[in-house]
Design a protein that fits this description.
The structure holds 2 protein chains of 2 kinds.
Chain A lengths: L1 H10 L2 E2 H12 L8 H13 L3 E8 L2 E9 L1 H12 L9 H9 L8 H24 L6 H28 L1
Antiparallel strand pairs in A: 1-3, 2-3
Chain B lengths: L1 H4 L5 E14 L2 E14 L3 E5 L6 H8 L7 E6 L2 E2 L5 H11 E4 L11 H11 L4 H14 L15 H13 L5 E5 L7 H16 L3 E5 L3 H6 L2 E6 L2 E7 L9 H5 L5
Helix pairs in contact in B: 4-5, 4-6, 6-7
Classes of the chains: A mainly alpha, B alpha/beta.
Chain lengths: 168, 253
Amino acid sequence: MRQHLLALLAKEPAHGYELKLALEQTFGQAYPSPNIGQIYVTLKRLEQDGMVRGQDVAQDGRPNKKVYEITPAGQAELASWVESPTEGPRVRDEFFAKLVLAPLAGLADRMELINSQRRHYFGIMRNLVELQAGMDRANAPARLLVEGAVLHLQADLDWLERCQEELV
Amino acid sequence: MTALLAKDVPALLAARGLVKVYRSGGVPVEAVRGVDLEVGAGEFVAIMGPSGSGKSTLLHVLGGLEPATRGEIWLRGRRVDGLSASAWAVLRRKHVGFVFQFFNLLSTMTAADNVELPALLAGVSPKQARKRRTELFDELGLAAKADAAPSRLSGGEQQRVALARALVNEPSLLLADEPTGNLDSASSRDVLRLLAHAHAGGQTILLVTHDAKIAGLADRVICLYDGMIADDARVVPTPRKMSAVRDVLELRG
């Protein structure tokens, strides 16, 4: 969240609510809407760390709003975020640990574990397919986010199949 | 079996103890090893499973393209596993539409004729065959391609023609073998949309696929493993609808 806000502020100064709207518009309804409280807390920390500067702007008949702009230190942190290599996708190691360990303790049958996990994935796939159907196809980032989720899920299902072939 | 079919809503398609053994160099290979399944009218069922799990063979046996070695197949309340190849052909013409991975269109005919021919063979008048074909082509976005030879069409277009051919006689059952297996992602999406549309119109669909997106559209997924059913379950959307993406991906930062 920290770098996402910095990136938006590198484009133009904004207040907390504008940042929330910008995130929602960019990533679409597929991505859970960021909590406004979380955004304010993050902005406050960024200000304490000298990454952004907040300025109170008076509003007619309403409390002041705080408009933030990025500082040189913030620009530097953003640049290092952009340049640093990004971790690869996570493996669902929690399910894998269950699959490997639970049968050892006589707690579960591997085939049952795999079947129930697969059903869960299909349920998520249904959600994603429905999201895709109702999606604004002109919003490429939002569309690609869901497509990425679909492809990861396909890989999870393929992996499950491999586990079934070797472990059951 | 009889008792089951006497119920108010009989299965459109049912298999009992279905076995398919091939001879490969004199060695028997059991591709399907005792499958029981039922598909209700209007259901959309996906069959998934690793390569070699027997899913295509199962589909071909259920559609009468290959004879079963043992077991029963019931279609529309009638036992059909003992039918001759020609009796199957007649049955398929009216009641079973087939879509294949590699389209299997007749290359010497136009797209339109590929679709109208099976209607004519089923005894529909030429005028009526043309009318049905035109409706399907309009629906599938093929109106401008009617007179084209299959070789002039993209893979996605050929598969849509194949879908029109499969649907032209309004079959009780649509069987599809990896219908998106040979298509790019945009064409896959078109075919998926059309399958979903046919399903919404009441079409019963049984389809073999590797594509998990299809499973996301189906009412039910049957997982085949080693010629047997490992799981058979309804697809139930996860309740945390909006967190669907976060369940799979995390935007870091």
